[in-house]
């Protein structure tokens, strides 16, 4: 028996993972993949058996669903309570010594790093190893999404928009999710393997990974680093010593790759939109549909009474501090999955928030909280529904502290404004406030700007006078030249100028120049529609961003 290498190109293309790797087999559960076997003599399934074994982890177990023995013909005896049953079938019209076998992992198989073995005539062969991830195209998978256009947006789209600013001055920021970058699936799975759940009980953890509810809760805690070896360290005001300002980041891959390369130690620093952007990348890399949500006038209800209470002191009375607060905006994720632990009406979008705010199960994480439960006020449901409900629906109470507290005013409309996400198939803002709360009063007027505002006049000037253009066509593995032209709006010399382009950094200092031009080059690794983002920093300004769409073509020598 000869076992050629697993067919990567064909299988990955069928599983929508061809953009993730051209050398590593990456499979989705609930969908078959093909292996090619070559025998020394014609194979006869009626005479000899092919016995396959799929294993996950160091101590795989049939009852837990992390090990399955199956065959052609499938005469394997299994325990009645065995989980996650794989199957193998011969491709039709197989004859002779060359045989194609279709192997199907079950739609409820735990995700992770699998090994596949074959026994034939008492001879054991290791066929290979591969990651197995969720499958939104599979009707039996808990993350199944019926609409193909939405799958393209929430699983396969690397280019995103995250909304910042304020409720009446909404500012879109382009974000590169980068879920198809090198090693992204490996990095996403590493996040699971270094989690406290896995380190404490690896067998239990691996078995529980059949469930996207469990996996998403792990990811939510592991994006922040408050209790574990998570990806990002949060910091909400400067100076940002020993790391990057949160406003520096334009994408997830540089953060995740740095975390991976430095031994899974936290990268400094992040705030809510960075935490959410990174989590969205990990979710999409693992096959769970995900999108980023911005809530304006977002409440932080610390005492869990579903109100934001502010106490004003009268003369001679000590003011009572309140732990509650309202943020100008807050950003979280939504993941798409079924909720078999609840009722079917709560299937669909679930709020997941990796920003460390309050404890959930003893650690800083939030969700998954069904959006439909938040809308209808089902605050008794898992997970963390009351906290998210308060973020979008809390009443704001003002009290006058004297001999006793007296209510001055109550505002039930302030919190939860202009809840926003990127539209499917375009960069336009989609207002989904009605998904979270029922209509109260009149709509608020929204003013748009075309790029993130860092400091009003200067930033808008830079948006107008910053030019980013591609010089010529772009081809895979060929140098692409990009020209950036800047005009200095102030008389001060700009020093320590740094331009960051898709992870490549160029430092240049210009003396006493009002306008200067920089040309840099890079080598695209994959074809398709991409977004190039440039970030400019100097001694006077920080985080001036510009983006431009680029279509990268395949390069043909002939």
UniProtKB/TrEMBL annotation:
<dbReference type="InterPro" id="IPR001102">
    <property type="entry name" value="Transglutaminase_N"/>
</dbReference>
<protein>
    <recommendedName>
        <fullName>protein-glutamine gamma-glutamyltransferase</fullName>
        <ecNumber>2.3.2.13</ecNumber>
    </recommendedName>
</protein>
<dbReference type="InterPro" id="IPR036238">
    <property type="entry name" value="Transglutaminase_C_sf"/>
</dbReference>
<dbReference type="InterPro" id="IPR008958">
    <property type="entry name" value="Transglutaminase_C"/>
</dbReference>
<keyword id="KW-0106">Calcium</keyword>
<dbReference type="GO" id="GO:0046872">
    <property type="term" value="F:metal ion binding"/>
</dbReference>
<feature type="active site">
    <location>
        <position position="353"/>
    </location>
</feature>
<dbReference type="InterPro" id="IPR002931">
    <property type="entry name" value="Transglutaminase-like"/>
</dbReference>
<feature type="active site">
    <location>
        <position position="272"/>
    </location>
</feature>
<dbReference type="InterPro" id="IPR014756">
    <property type="entry name" value="Ig_E-set"/>
</dbReference>
<feature type="domain" description="Transglutaminase-like">
    <location>
        <begin position="264"/>
        <end position="356"/>
    </location>
</feature>
<dbReference type="Pfam" id="PF00868">
    <property type="entry name" value="Transglut_N"/>
</dbReference>
<keyword id="KW-0479">Metal-binding</keyword>
<keyword id="KW-0012">Acyltransferase</keyword>
<dbReference type="GO" id="GO:0007399">
    <property type="term" value="P:nervous system development"/>
</dbReference>
<dbReference type="GO" id="GO:0003810">
    <property type="term" value="F:protein-glutamine gamma-glutamyltransferase activity"/>
</dbReference>
<dbReference type="InterPro" id="IPR036985">
    <property type="entry name" value="Transglutaminase-like_sf"/>
</dbReference>
<comment type="similarity">
    <text>Belongs to the transglutaminase superfamily. Transglutaminase family.</text>
</comment>
<dbReference type="Pfam" id="PF00927">
    <property type="entry name" value="Transglut_C"/>
</dbReference>
<dbReference type="InterPro" id="IPR013783">
    <property type="entry name" value="Ig-like_fold"/>
</dbReference>
<keyword id="KW-0808">Transferase</keyword>
<dbReference type="InterPro" id="IPR023608">
    <property type="entry name" value="Transglutaminase_animal"/>
</dbReference>
<feature type="active site">
    <location>
        <position position="330"/>
    </location>
</feature>
<dbReference type="InterPro" id="IPR038765">
    <property type="entry name" value="Papain-like_cys_pep_sf"/>
</dbReference>
<dbReference type="InterPro" id="IPR050779">
    <property type="entry name" value="Transglutaminase"/>
</dbReference>
<dbReference type="Pfam" id="PF01841">
    <property type="entry name" value="Transglut_core"/>
</dbReference>
């Amino acid at each position: 028996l000869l076992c050629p290498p697993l067919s990567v190109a064909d299988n990955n293309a069928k599983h929508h993972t061809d953009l993730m790797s051209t050398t590593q087999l990456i499979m989705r559960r609930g969908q078959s993949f093909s292996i090619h076997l070559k025998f020394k003599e014609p194979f006869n399934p009626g005479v000899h058996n092919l016995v396959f074994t799929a294993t996950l982890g160091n101590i795989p177990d049939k009852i837990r669903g992390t090990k399955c023995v199956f065959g052609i013909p499938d005469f394997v005896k299994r325990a009645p309570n065995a989980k996650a049953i794989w199957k193998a079938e011969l491709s039709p019209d197989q004859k002779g010594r060359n045989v194609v076998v279709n192997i199907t992992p079950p739609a409820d198989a735990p995700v992770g790093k699998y090994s596949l073995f074959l026994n034939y005539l008492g001879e054991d062969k290791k066929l290979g190893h591969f990651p197995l991830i969720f499958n939104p195209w599979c009707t039996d998978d808990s993350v199944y999404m019926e609409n193909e256009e939405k799958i393209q947006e929430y699983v396969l789209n690397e280019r995103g928009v995250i909304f910042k600013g304020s409720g009446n001055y909404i500012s879109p920021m382009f974000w590169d999710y980068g879920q198809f970058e090198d090693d992204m699936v490996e990095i996403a799975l590493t996040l699971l393997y270094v989690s406290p759940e896995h380190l404490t009980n690896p067998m239990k953890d691996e078995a529980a990974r059949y469930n996207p509810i469990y996996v998403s809760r792990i990811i939510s805690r592991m994006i922040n680093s408050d209790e574990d070896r998570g990806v990002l360290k949060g910091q909400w005001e400067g100076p940002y010593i020993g790391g990057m300002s949160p406003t520096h980041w334009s994408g997830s891959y540089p953060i995740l790759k740095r975390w991976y390369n430095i031994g899974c130690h936290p990268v400094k620093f992040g705030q809510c939109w960075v935490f959410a952007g990174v989590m969205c990348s990990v979710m999409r890399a693992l096959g769970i549909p995900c999108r980023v949500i911005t809530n304006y006038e977002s409440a932080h209800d610390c005492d869990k009474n579903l109100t934001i209470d502010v106490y004003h002191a009268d003369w001679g009375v000590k003011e009572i501090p309140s732990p509650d607060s309202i943020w100008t905006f807050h950003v979280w994720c939504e993941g798409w999955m079924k909720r078999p632990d609840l009722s079917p009406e709560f299937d669909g979008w679930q709020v997941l928030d990796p920003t460390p705010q309050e404890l959930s199960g003893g650690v800083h994480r939030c969700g998954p909280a069904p959006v439909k439960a938040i809308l209808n006020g089902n605050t008794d449901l898992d997970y963390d529904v009351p906290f998210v409900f308060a973020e979008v629906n809390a009443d704001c109470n003002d009290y006058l502290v004297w001999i006793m507290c007296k209510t001055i005013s109550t505002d039930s409309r302030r919190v939860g404004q202009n809840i926003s996400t990127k539209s499917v198939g375009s960069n336009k803002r989609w207002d989904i406030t009605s998904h979270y709360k029922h209509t109260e009063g009149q709509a608020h007027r929204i003013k748009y700007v075309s790029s993130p505002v860092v400091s009003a006049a200067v930033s808008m000037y830079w948006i107008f006078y910053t030019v980013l253009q591609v010089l010529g066509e772009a081809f895979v593995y060929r140098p692409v030249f990009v020209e950036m032209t800047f005009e200095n709006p102030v008389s001060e010399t700009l020093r320590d100028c740094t331009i960051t382009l898709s992870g490549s950094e160029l430092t240049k200092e210009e003396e006493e120049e009002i306008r200067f031009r920089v040309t840099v080059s890079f080598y695209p690794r994959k074809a398709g529609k991409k977004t190039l983002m440039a970030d400019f920093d100097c001694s006077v300004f920080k985080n001036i961003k510009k983006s431009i769409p680029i279509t990268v073509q395949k390069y043909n020598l002939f």
